[in-house]
Amino acid sequence: MKKNEICNVIELFREQKQMKIVDLVTDICSPRQYSRYNSGESQIPNKTLLMILDRLGVTITEFYNRYQMYYKSVRFKLMEHLKSLNLRHYDDIDNFLEGIDYELLQDTDIMIYNFLRGICDYYLKKQSKEHTIYLLKQLLDYPNCLDNEVFNIIEMNCIIHLIQLSKDKNLLKELSSLVNKMNDSINIEGFEWYDGTMLNLSLIQYYGQMGEHEKALTLTESELSDFGGRLELKVLNNLLMYKIASLKKINKFEEMKEVALILETTVKLETSDERVNSIRKGLLEINELD
To answer: What is the rounded distance in angstroms from the CA atom of residue 94 to the CA atom of residue 81?
Structure first.
């Protein structure tokens, strides 16, 4: 356990028992010293910890179980909401984050929280695009994340959203090289195929922005042939739209119209009227081509 995490759990018990800090630490340490333990400035000695737990009426076993329960449950919920981010459930995630006590999070969980908060704030129009890009670039170089698996997931998601938001070609080139490296190493339970596809969607967007339409088409076709019915409908339709865009850019109009016919069928299954109307408008323009 990290030193400040120990006091985080002590605080959970103290608040539960409605005990003032001065009553908790009298004859054990000064309130000022307890504040140093709580902030992580000083490490709480084992003897002091045991005396405080005794004052709280909590056994060391109860303390450890509460620690495990709190941090594991918070991490699990954060990770579950990280998955739902790809499904664009921004309001649900925002409500979940509102109920979290940020001060009680440990370093790795803070990284997940900050990422979720940044993305939700942008898509819920609480923050600017510039602020969100700055946050994502900071998270790519996060110094305090000791969990490599979590860091890989956050790094991957940061890249996905930066490619979608940024127009900086130098940054896009740097990100695309990271995507290519990560595509060969994704092996995280519950994230393997879905986030691999999300990464490739971002890479397809990058190729399109850089004018490399043949590469975009090749990658799109690879994703469509590999999905095996497991993609969310929106992702499938996005891939079809990317394929249409790439075919149009390289003047393969007949093939483009064939893909458009497929999209006309699949788009009917989507539930968002705004999105359906937007896609149909694009399809109408295609149908008007000679």
So the answer is: 10
Q: Find out whether 35 and 22 touch, Cβ atoms under 8 Å.
A: no
Tens digits of residue pLDDT in 231-266:
567 778 888 888 998 998 999 988 998 988 888 888
The C-alpha atoms of residue 167 and residue 133 are separated, in whole angstroms, by 10
Q: Which residues contact 207 (CB under 8 A, 6 or more apart)?
A: 213, 215, 216, 219
* pLDDT bracket for residue 126 (50, 70, 90): very high
Output the CA–CA distances (angstroms, integers) from residue 135 to 4, 93, 187, 225, in the order listed: 25, 18, 26, 35
Q: How far apart are the first and last CA of the chain?
A: 68
Q: How far apart are CA 83 and CA 77, in angstroms?
A: 10
Closest residue by Cα to residue 238 from 182, 198, 274: 198
Task: Give the C-alpha separation, 275 to 234, whole Å.
Answer: 10
With 80 as the cut, is the pLDDT of residue 2 above it? Answer: no
| Distant-in-sequence contacts of 244-251, Cβ < 8 A, 24+ apart | 244/282, 244/286, 245/208, 245/216, 246/204, 246/208, 246/213, 246/214, 246/216, 246/217, 246/220, 247/217, 248/286, 249/208, 249/213, 250/213, 250/214, 250/217
d(CA 147, CA 123): 27
